[in-house]
Amino acid sequence: MKIKGIVWLGTRTDQFEQMTDFCRSMLGLSQRSIEPGFAVFEMPNGDLFEVFGPQEPSNTFMSHPVAGFLVDDILAARAEMEAKGIEFIKPPTNEFYGIEALFKDGCGNWFSLTEHPKE
Q1: Quick check: 29 and 46 in contact, CB under 8 A?
Q2: CATH number at residue 50
Q3: 71-117 tens-digit pLDDT
Q4: Domain range for residue 34?
Q5: If you count Cβ atoms within 10 Å of the first and of the last residue's Cβ in the chain, which end, N or C, has fewer?
Q6: CB–CB of 9/40 below 8 Å?
């Protein structure tokens, strides 16, 4: 397995409005979508930053920012990590930015593997 980069970052916050305003006005991020309690911002290179409000039902496990590591073959990478004792939360799922598989590192933190859809 080879990690090619970090292509996704997500965070949960009790201050959703302040965080999304910070992303737009201070960081100058392009807002891809927004709905109550959930916003997606896109970087110039296509990487994504997602902000989850306190009432958003998805990704409730987040207690710290979670990064998505890009790999070429998510199934092979997952199998390799599982063989070394890494715990995955669910099977890989198709998201609008690619295929994602969430896992817990050896310290109890959550991260994800991401495979972009084939061109």
Answers
A1: no
A2: 3.10.180.10
A3: 999 999 999 999 999 989 878 878 766 788 999 888 888 899 999 86
A4: 5-115
A5: C
A6: no
